[in-house]
Amino acid sequence: MPESSPRHPPVSIDHLDATAYRIPTDFPESDGTIEWNATTLVLAEAHGGDQTGIGYTYADRATAVMIKDLLAEIVVGRDAMMTSANWLAMVQAIRNLGRPGISSMAISAVDSALWDLKARILGLPLVMLLGAARDRIAVYGSGGFTSYDNDRLRKQLSGWAAEGIARVKMKVGREPDKDSERVAAARDAIGPKIELFVDANGAYTRKQALDLADKFHVLRVSWFEEPVSSDDLDGLRLLRDRVPAGMQVAAGEYGYDLPYFERMLEAGAVDVLQADATRCGGITGFLQVAALCEARSLPLSAHCGPSLHAHPCCVARPVCHIEYFHDHVRIEHMLFDGALTPHDGFLEPDLSRPGIGLEFKHSDAEKYKR
Fold first, then answer.
1. Which one, of 58, 61, 55, 67, lies nearest residue 103 by Cα?
2. Which string of DSSP letters, residue by residue, matches 133-202?
3. CA distance 307 to 326
4. What is the pLDDT of residues 188-203, one digit of tens each?
5. Do 347 and 261 lie in a common domain?
6. What pLDDT score was predicted for residue 12?
7. Phi, psi torsion values for 125, nearest 5 degrees
8. Domain that holds residue 90
9. Other CB atoms within 10 A of residue 344 CB
10. Among residues 68, 101, 123, which one ends one of the domains?
11. Whole-structure pTM over 0.85, yes or no?
12. What is the mean pLDDT of the chain?
């Protein structure tokens, strides 16, 4: 009987820290339901084995406080190699606080930092540690905020098309009576060959969404995201059943735990499920959602945070693309060395860099610290 191989020596997590940074937008932004003029990045940094792993989420300063005050006590001193056990320990620790919202975003940032740390200790890009299924992943350009006039909308979307991105997304729902006109302007700007997506962020009623789906179909819209609230599973299923052929209904970006995604899939609510590793439990949680999709032969699309998602999305077989979201692209390129840029509409992890391939620019970020 062959001898068992020796266990990898444990590498202690020595320290965990978190910091919030509030970065103003480059222009006032809004979608169908909210308005904003700044985005807060919460950075988690896990130290061990003479390496530092980083992860992040887009949340609020309270998320950084939870990481420092609670999650640090849970993971410090544990083995950095045992990523699944560390994730489970964090999930158990927030039982009485509630899983959705801040708790899951805090876990997400730390879990990603711990995967990054593990990969750096082993000297591997994360995609290789996890087991690559592909070497690159498609993106879609995302912005087209309802606060943009038609000139700004046309310029942004046509710019992505000119860069070789084959699909672009715009926000709708703020003024439903004007949405057909805005979508027509977007279609005119990008031409007939680029796929056009719309995202209502749950702003429409069911009947508004059904009416507009027919109007958007004439303009060759192929993706209708959150036509109604993602909490209205019956409404999403209604829309999925009745929108024109060739138009996919998508939702899921607000999922924080596996039961949320399971309920959405059980309801038959979407053609494409969305998940966000900065919300749904980090790299560990994202791969769990991917397994659900694979079991149902349903595609998965990654929501925002493109440089963070590139590695797990090249691993998870059901993933069809990543949202190349204007706000997060801008922040990643401002504050991280190694932030990825699409080539011919695809992101490709940098295999010359260990972990997720990012280094945080602390000095550049200092003025945004909260």
1. 67
2. S-S-EEEEEEE--TTS-HHHHHHHHHHHHHTT--EEEEE--SSHHHHHHHHHHHHHHH-SSSEEEEE-TT
3. 12
4. 999 999 999 999 999 9
5. yes
6. 97
7. -65, 145
8. 15-123
9. 11
10. 123
11. yes
12. 97
